[in-house]
């Protein structure tokens, strides 16, 4: 079986996601809504498992990190204070022939990726440096010049007939109020972080939190992305998993280094090859940051960000203090090196922010395999999702060998017992081999088959997804075996 190219692999993953109920186009019966997707029955399970893995790692395993769930609607002044009203822009360029709009920096990034693929590493490095300089200086004319110099054409029209580069604000706005004439313009939040910052005092005082401490949150955010591409990689409605860690001024560099290392370990614990990940330090820093690093994953279309670690200084709390008139200070009675209390200060913040939808896509891509199982003249193959057992939508599938002789009843009794602890699926249609293949394709780590011998000695055959090995086991030991592979301890208690 010929090995798929990266493009073919990505297309196969997208097709697989729809066929097996992971991801659907939103409003598909009405021809869909661009850059908006629905998670199907298996996608919702996988997504929830990723949330659980993150929440346990952040909140459950850290005594000094708590979680909140803030509202999507916030006072308009929040976004003025955060800088989003005036500065949340992307450099956009239009092609005059196709009438399509593109992010100028992404056109250049795609060109850099093509140079690297063609072995033109010097050209790629030079263009990367020139683009970084232009972005840092916010030199829109230079961005257009680079697009022209490198003869970048519109993917739709194939022409190089470009407009000037302009800034485009990404926030969605809507009206808040029952009557149109008395309504107020508010925004759908473009990030979840501000909900944490405006609740800093509430959480600190009600939870009696002592610095350093963190506040975590999982929630929806909305950005009016003009460029929607690469499936669920870039969407207008997406979900973030963020943690803001509040520290003493002067200790931000130490904690930035700590969280940078800790977050990569979280990714690698799932078994992803280390060479698939890399750090990318920002050249152009956001207005609030004094350091920023992306954790990037090698998708079929190149290395892209999945998580950002940012040292946000005291910008956010100071801004909200100024705009709200409320003091966002912390009184620290611990003693400094001179033996005096640290006293009042506005804390600095280290942020870890991961895109849940990108993590979902990363997980699917990393797990997807098309295996050739042919032997001699016998042709055979299978599609496999080699998901970590903790993330698998179903932990175990229960099969009666036939639909008669009391086997379905016995299988149902086993499932009724297991489903108290594990997400299970029951199947009795088709030959056993076909049922195995379906479970391989959705990532179920174990399949339990109930046969006539089961009725005699209370043993079943359990099949392991990755190896296809089958073993006979007593029913009373099923819980223990499945738990040993699907427990969260397998991720958090490694040597």
Automatic annotation (TrEMBL):
Domain Aminoacyl-transfer RNA synthetases class-II family profile: 126-389
Any GO molecular function: ATP binding
CDD domains the UniProt entry points to: GlyRS-like_core, GlyRS_anticodon
Residue positions binding substrate: 103, 191, 238-242, 351-355
UniProt keyword annotations, A-Z: Aminoacyl-tRNA synthetase, ATP-binding, Cytoplasm, Ligase, Nucleotide-binding, Protein biosynthesis
Nucleotide-binding found in the keyword field: yes
Chemical reaction(s) catalysed: tRNA(Gly) + glycine + ATP = glycyl-tRNA(Gly) + AMP + diphosphate
GO cellular component, as recorded: cytoplasm; extracellular exosome; microvesicle
Superkingdom: Bacteria
Biological process annotations from GO: diadenosine tetraphosphate biosynthetic process; glycyl-tRNA aminoacylation
Positions that bind ATP: 223-225, 305-306, 355-358
PROSITE patterns, sorted: AA_TRNA_LIGASE_II
Transmembrane segment boundaries: none
InterPro entries in the record: aa-tRNA-synt_IIb, aa-tRNA-synth_II, aa-tRNA-synth_II/BPL/LPL, Anticodon-bd, Anticodon-bd_dom_sf, Gly-tRNA_synthase/POLG2, Gly_tRNA_ligase_bac, GlyRS-like_core
Pfam families from the UniProt entry: HGTP_anticodon, tRNA-synt_2b
Subcellular location: Cytoplasm
Binding partners and assembly: Homodimer.
Function noted in UniProt: Catalyzes the attachment of glycine to tRNA(Gly).
Record family assignment: Belongs to the class-II aminoacyl-tRNA synthetase family.
Name of this chain's protein: Glycine--tRNA ligase
Organism: Pedobacter heparinus (strain ATCC 13125 / DSM 2366 / CIP 104194 / JCM 7457 / NBRC 12017 / NCIMB 9290 / NRRL B-14731 / HIM 762-3)
The encoding gene: glyQS
């Amino acid at each position: 079986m010929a090995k798929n190219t990266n493009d073919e692999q990505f297309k196969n993953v997208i097709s697989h996601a729809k066929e097996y109920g992971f991801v659907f186009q939103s409003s598909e019966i009405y021809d869909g809504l661009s850059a908006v997707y629905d998670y199907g029955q298996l996608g919702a399970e996988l997504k929830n498992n990723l949330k659980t893995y993150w929440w346990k790692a952040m909140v459950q395993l850290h005594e000094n990190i708590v979680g909140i769930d803030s509202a999507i609607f916030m006072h308009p002044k929040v976004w003025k204070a955060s800088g989003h009203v005036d500065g949340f822009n992307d450099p956009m360029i239009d092609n005059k022939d196709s009438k399509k709009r593109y992010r100028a920096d992404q056109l250049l990034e795609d060109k850099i990726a093509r140079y690297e693929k063609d072995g033109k590493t010097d050209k790629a490095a030079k263009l990367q440096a020139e683009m970084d300089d232009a972005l840092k200086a916010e030199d829109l004319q230079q961005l257009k010049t680079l697009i022209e110099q490198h003869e970048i054409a519109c993917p739709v029209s194939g022409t190089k007939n470009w407009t000037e580069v302009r800034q485009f604000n990404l926030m969605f706005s809507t009206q808040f109020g029952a009557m149109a004439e008395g309504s107020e313009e508010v925004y759908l939040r473009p990030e979840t972080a501000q909900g944490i910052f405006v609740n800093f005092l509430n959480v600190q005082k009600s939870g009696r939190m002592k610095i350093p401490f963190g506040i975590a949150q999982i929630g929806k955010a909305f950005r009016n992305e003009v460029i929607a591409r690469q499936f669920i990689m870039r969407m207008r409605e997406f979900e973030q998993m963020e943690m803001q860690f509040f520290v003493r001024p002067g200790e931000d560099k130490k904690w930035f280094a700590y969280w940078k290392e800790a977050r990569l370990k979280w990714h690698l614990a799932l078994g992803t090859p280390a060479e698939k990940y890399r750090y990318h330090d920002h050249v152009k820093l956001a207005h609030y940051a004094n350091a920023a690093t992306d954790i990037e994953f090698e998708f079929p279309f190149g290395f892209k960000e999945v998580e950002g670690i940012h040292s946000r200084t005291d910008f956010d709390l100071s801004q909200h203090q100024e705009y709200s008139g409320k003091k966002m200070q912390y009184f620290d009675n611990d003693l400094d090196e001179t033996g005096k209390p640290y006293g009042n200060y506005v804390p600095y913040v280290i942020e870890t922010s991961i895109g849940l939808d990108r993590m979902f896509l990363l997980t699917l891509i990393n797990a997807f395999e098309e295996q050739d199982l042919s032997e001699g003249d016998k042709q055979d193959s299978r599609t496999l999702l080699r998901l970590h057992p903790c993330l698998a939508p179903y932990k175990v599938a229960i099969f009666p060998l036939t639909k008669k002789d009391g086997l379905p009843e016995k299988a149902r009794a086993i499932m009724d017992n297991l489903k108290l602890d594990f997400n299970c699926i029951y199947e009795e249609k088709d030959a056993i081999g076909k049922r195995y293949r379906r479970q391989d394709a959705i990532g179920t780590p174990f399949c339990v088959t109930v046969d006539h011998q089961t009725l005699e000695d209370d043993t079943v055959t359990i099949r392991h997804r990755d190896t296809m090995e089958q073993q006979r086991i007593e029913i009373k030991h099923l819980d223990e075996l499945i738990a040993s592979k699907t427990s969260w301890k397998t991720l958090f208690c490694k040597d």
